[in-house]
């Protein structure tokens, strides 16, 4: 790929795009679930003046992203997270709002990360609809390939990402702002929050602080999620139009392909690996990629999707490692009712999803995992809804 030309900032166009009203809309989107944070409160103390200052910086071309706060999370695995200043988050929402309508018409239907009307539950539902089709209503054997891109966010090449963005950028000024976001060197002045030994636990290939110059996007920023979809869009088009894979789902860097022939999946995996290396400078993670029969269950986005039932992964539901004897064990919904455990918000939503969608659940088909007693039970109303469901009644209690 040829190097993209450096975009120019047009003050007249910037005045049209980066208005006070546009920043106000972006601010209201940005403050959801963030209004009580220190940065949000500081920004809101003098809201009008901050909007005017930010609009002036964007319109004049003086805008530069501020320092980010970096910290490490250990659940569900060790990750390095970069939190942008609230002022920059407003700009993130503004930029994505300008680009999203253009790219939504380009993305394939079965890309489910960070898109309106999509998400993890929709991806799992789509996988469920694929299984009867590829198995011809469960009459033939079928296989799945679960592929994972190695150190995806830390390996994204800035030059190639900007070239993809430039192809559909609505104006040079928008591309100028994209360049400001993508090429921001977070490692140069990041504020590290937390003990140093936690940062040392992050694998070098997954750390943005140790990434080569010109590589990597920070996990945790609104623009990074959107740019990830843009970067892998060409892979989606390749799989759908060149490989002609009919049953294909992608959620960020997790790829699922289904086929009645194992050798076809092997060929697709080799073709995808070659495409990633040549076009996107990425590699597949061999240790986390697998090809297996559908009957063994597809471990995808916190669920294990079997042909006739769906199970939750324990890490989605239980928030403490002491609960349960086996790490990563599969949890039938019966366990959650007989031994009410503290649920994360996403775990509670996942369980409601199973209930509302009326999935077929067969708790007796999986080994029971002992769960310790806890002191925060699931609400009685929610528990009674599950127990009294006409399709699930009588399945949970012995």
Major β-sheet, in short?
A: 4 strands, antiparallel
Strand % is: 5-15%
How far apart lie the N and C ends? Answer: 63 Å
Given the C-alpha coordinates, what overall shape results?
globular
Tally of contiguous helical segments? 16
Question: What is the percent of helical residues?
Answer: 40-55%
Query: Which residue ranges are poorly predicted, with pLDDT under 50 across at least 5 consecutive positions?
Result: 319-329, 332-345, 355-378, 391-398
| Average pLDDT, all residues | 80
What does this molecule look like?
- Helices cover 44% and strands 11% of the residues.
- The chain is α+β, with helices and mostly antiparallel strands and 398 residues long.
- Strands 5-6-3-7 form a four-stranded antiparallel sheet, with helices on both faces. The protein has a four-stranded antiparallel sheet with strand order 8-9-10-11. Strands 2-1-4 form a three-stranded mixed sheet.
- A hairpin with a 2-residue loop joins strand 5 (247-251) and strand 6 (254-259).
- The longest helix is centred in the middle third of the chain and has 21 residues, at 222-242.
- The chain is globular.
- The N and C termini lie far apart (63 Å).
